[in-house]
Amino acid sequence: MRLGSASRLEPRTGRSGEGLVFDGVLARRAAGLSTSFPTPHFPSELGEGVVAFDSGFASPEVLPDLTTFAMAALTTHRDETLQYSANQGQPELRRWIADYMNEDGCDLTPDHLMIVNGAKDGLDLVCRLLLDPGDAVVVTAPTYFTCIPIFRSFEAQLLEVAQDDDGIRVDELEALLDSRAQDAKRPHKFVYVVADYHNPAGVSISAERRQALVALAAKRGFFIVEDNPYRRVRFEGPSIPTLKALDREGVVIHTGTFSKLIAPGLRIGWVAAEPELIARLLQLKSDGGTSALLQRIVYEFCRSPAFPDHVERVRRLYVTHRDRMVAAIRREMPDVGVNVPHGGYYLWLTLPASVDGEALARAAAAASVNLIPGSKFYAGTGGFPRNRDDGRSHVRLSYSFATVDDIDEGVSRLARIYQAMRAA
Ligand SMILES: Cc1ncc(COP(=O)(O)O)c(C=O)c1O
To answer: Which residue of 69, 101, 214, 303 has the smallest Cβ count within 10 Å?
Structure first.
């Protein structure tokens, strides 16, 4: 298939010997994309015996029974739930989320909130708000891999800044700003961070770094996009205020979601930002409003006594899964480095130099254990300073979806492959 070679004044489509031709018709952001479909990995598509350590699916054991809330939504609230909904989202749900975030030290009203179709949709909208082609965006190395194509689809230039056990290196971020200023380049538009229980690295940004990051953003004039899906999936350790809670100047745009706490299939999330930004975001949201039905179901569940009990079950289950996976890895692959996150869904493994993460992930998939090579979590655009780790000495394992027995079985299979690679 030939793509984008003809003049844009003469778009051409049609069939040729090479297949369907789109000459000069597709947008730049779409023209270079692959035309193959991704390998099946959703729970309903998994083959027999496959152990899924690859994605952040919820455990079926903690998917809540929402029947009574859905019944109420479809009967008592039918006039609302089967209509278009307001672009900003239902006021009661926004009030509930404001209170929920205020428990973490924020000072939000429903006007600071907008309901979206999950955090990823929130990120996409934030990009519509902030990015012109060629704008710079800072991501951590490593970063949440799905944000990479989202930011790229807005033709952003991605800059990587390292993180350590205390989260993003704010000193390096400042050095990056200085170096761009010296080269007469504009500062980045925003820095994207996962403040709590980072995906994939599991670390949380320390209290001091949070203060420093928010102060730097206010001083140097960039936004912080705080993506925080795992905050309440906390197992132990202190609850550090969110970046949004520290924000006095309106520089933090926070994306939240019910995917990790209730169910990802609901696709209900939110953006919290200054009302002046929310007002603009509303005009950029073109989906006709997030489903009123699903918002009502979520709201009725969240305000019911079942919700706190549910959150407790979620935490208890995932901490059990984490412990089981950490124990299995320490037992079966004792020379592999493993972080122990205080919350969230993921283990980030550090492999010895002789084992390549991509090769390990490929061999594991052949043995029906799905995991994600670390390199996928790097934007690969050269870090700051340059020549950073490219992620090949890491793999990410998710412990959320697999049962404890599958965790044991999957790690055993992985360990056999790993030991063989190590020996070779
Ligand atoms: C850091 C991060 N942000 C966003 C999401 C996706 O959230 P949502 O399902 O609300 O789009 C995930 C899910 O894995 C995530 O890990």
So the answer is: 303
